[in-house]
Design a protein that fits this description.
mainly beta, 14% helix, 154 residues, 61% strand, single chain, AOC barrel-like, elongated
Length: 154
């Protein structure tokens, strides 16, 4: 009986050893700028975008990093949805690939997604950013770019 319990304990220990542990979530302030093509207007349209930003004051992992992303969707200066991919380069030299979606209501953009590779792979991504945009351009020629600030967690 003792041998069976020892064998069971060793087997359980081996099973635990091969199951990867999920890393603690990393929460960061995010700031940067986005470029839209064509420029965002008051009426929703198909738009592609790129953005570049900085992750700072991070808790739960590397203290900072940079992020770049590409995406596309149907949105206006006030609402819409999109999806895309991002690459985070952490100050430690590690990276994280992210697949994300956005849902915009007014200037607030909610972010959801998954870390697909690298640091914290498999973790869910959540966040919200607020755009600072020129409303006159939204109503006329189209908004070609805007800055943003917010918080993300992965």
């Amino acid at each position: 009986m003792a041998r069976r319990l020892l064998a069971l304990a060793l087997t359980a220990g081996l099973a635990l050893a091969v199951v990867p542990a999920h890393a603690a979530p990393i929460t960061c302030k995010l700031s940067g700028s986005a470029q839209f093509s064509p420029g965002a207007k008051t009426k929703a349209q198909s738009i592609s975008y790129t953005f570049a930003g900085k992750l700072a004051n991070c808790v739960g992992g590397p203290k900072s990093g940079t992020v770049s992303a590409v995406g596309a969707g149907t949105f206006s200066c006030a609402s819409g949805t999109s999806s895309g991919t991002a690459m985070i380069n952490w100050v430690t030299g590690q990276t994280s690939g992210v697949a994300f979606t956005t849902n915009q209501t007014t200037a607030v953009v909610r972010i959801g997604g998954t870390v697909t590779s690298g640091l914290n792979a498999g973790s869910k991504v959540t966040g919200a950013i607020v755009f600072v945009a020129n409303a006159v351009l939204c109503a006329t020629s189209g908004l070609p770019s805007a800055t943003f600030n917010g918080v993300v967690r992965a």
